[in-house]
Amino acid sequence: MANMQIFQFNSFQVNTFVIWDETKECIIIDPGCLSETECNVLTRFIADNQLRPVRLINTHYHIDHILGNKYVKEYYKLPVEAHQGGRAFWENGSFWAANFGLGEDDLVAPDVYLKDGDEIKFGNLSLKVLYTPGHADGSICFYNKTDGYVIVGDVLFHTSIGRTDLPTGNYDILKQSITEKLFTLPDETVVYPGHGPKTTIGFEKINNPFL
What we know:
Elements: E1 3-9, E2 14-20, E3 25-29, H1 36-48, E4 52-57, H2 63-66, H3 69-76, E5 80-83, H4 87-91, H5 94-99, E6 112-114, E7 119-122, E8 125-131, E9 140-144, E10 149-153, E11 156-157, E12 160-161, H6 171-182, E13 190-193, E14 199-200, H7 201-207
Parallel strand pairs: 3-4, 4-5, 5-6, 10-13
Antiparallel strand pairs: 1-2, 2-3, 7-8, 8-9, 9-10, 11-12, 13-14
């Protein structure tokens, strides 16, 4: 049985996920922690619950979702995992980093590339990787069939979708990703987005005005 803790970090209120089971192995998804205080909130929770981080994963490489990558990588000695389709974002990230008062050395590229259909295994849990570009090249979602949830980054939101006006964004591709990869999941599947509240696949099929 999966346990999940969600933190909202940085000025964009990015949802950072810690997921674990009875083995105490956990994964960290989209560490948006920017300040020392935010980083301490994350590590204190992990320590207080006696968790052991074994994987560090990103849904995509927009700057607000990766601000804590370097800290978490170094603190827990973990490789960063992401989809190689987001290469442009880590190769040309200096502009975005400067907006947060960061230098190029504060951004780290992925060490491991994930691809569509991969299984992310930790403890007794498993998440399936779904490649869902459109908001950004390299966007991936993580589906847990057993517990009935999917972590979607900025692909889908409660009655909304990810913006497509940033580099590599494309509305038609995003809509195709949602309809072919997410809307084929069971209606009761809980959707955890990269910002804002959770929703369900069934609710978005009926109520999302962008789809």
